[in-house]
Design a protein that fits this description.
Helix content is 35%, strand content 28%. The chain is of the alpha/beta class and 251 residues long. The protein has an eight-stranded parallel beta barrel, surrounded by six helices. The chain is globular, with a radius of gyration of 16 Å. The two termini are 15 Å apart.
Length: 251
């Protein structure tokens, strides 16, 4: 059985780590390089770096910051934000990342998923999906959650899997920052539909929420931000808790 993963997330804006609630009311959470090093040393399985304003500002990812983070950690490292073509992926990988995460660009041009996967492999290609319930239906949102679409979440993840995505990073906008737990029903349904791993994001507030994500939601990984950034949960304590609950976790 493949071990479940614990993944801290660095949401970056203006060179700083930020965190909000439901994608708004952002507040400063610290220096991304210092946080990355801390999480790597604490036993995080992977790290995700999302330049959350790159797409809105129509610019590329901050490559020098990616390089600084990559140089101070020894765990797999995924980068997202402002990635719209293969040449940008190449720059990010050269600056120390192992994977890229694409979201808005894939909605605009789904074939970008295939181009990236063909060039660098599906193991390098994460498709991030920001989902929100609108009139009882899960719809995809883009541009840092600021723009709604009429794309059905579950149809979309199947499509990008077929195009070569190696992993889905699913964030529930309804749960994000609330600390009320992950969107378990949506996660479990996604697991039924897909053959690729799903990272659960949005809503982690305590250790039990990760256990629920892995067992009720069938997620392959649990991603969180504020509970790690502000010291509410320490990664070694979380891993010990999950192991005691019977989860397959790397110590």
């Amino acid at each position: 059985m493949v071990a479940k993963r614990i993944i801290p997330c660095l949401d970056i804006k203006n060179g700083r780590t930020v965190k909000g609630i439901n994608f708004v009311e952002l507040k400063d959470a610290g220096d991304p390089v210092e946080l990355a090093q801390k999480y790597s040393n604490a036993g995080a399985d992977e790290l995700v770096f999302l330049d959350i304003s790159a797409t809105l500002e129509e610019r590329e990812t901050i490559y020098d910051l990616v390089k600084k983070v990559g140089e101070c950690i020894n765990i797999p490292f995924a980068v997202g934000g402002g990635i719209s073509e293969v040449n940008r992926v190449e720059k990010i990988l050269k600056n120390g990342a192992d994977k890229v995460s694409i979201n808005s660009a894939a909605v605009r041009d789904p074939l970008v998923v295939k181009r990236i996967s063909d060039a660098f492999g599906s193991q390098c290609t994460i498709v991030a999906v920001d989902g929100k319930q609108v009139n009882g239906k899960w719809l995809i949102h883009t541009h840092g959650g600021t723009r709604s679409t009429d794309l059905d979440l579950f149809e979309w993840v199947q499509k990008v899997q077929d195009l070569g995505a190696g992993e889905i990073l699913f964030t529930s906008m309804d749960n994000d920052g609330t600390k009320a737990g992950f969107a378990l029903e949506a996660l479990a349904y996604m697991d039924e539909l897909l053959s690729i791993p799903v990272i659960a994001s949005g809503g982690a507030g305590n250790m039990e929420h990760f256990h629920e994500a892995f067992n009720d939601g069938m997620a392959s990984a649990g991603l969180a931000a504020s509970i790690f950034h502000f010291g509410e949960i320490e990664i070694p304590d979380l891993k010990n808790y999950l192991i005691k609950k019977g989860n397959n976790i790397r110590p």
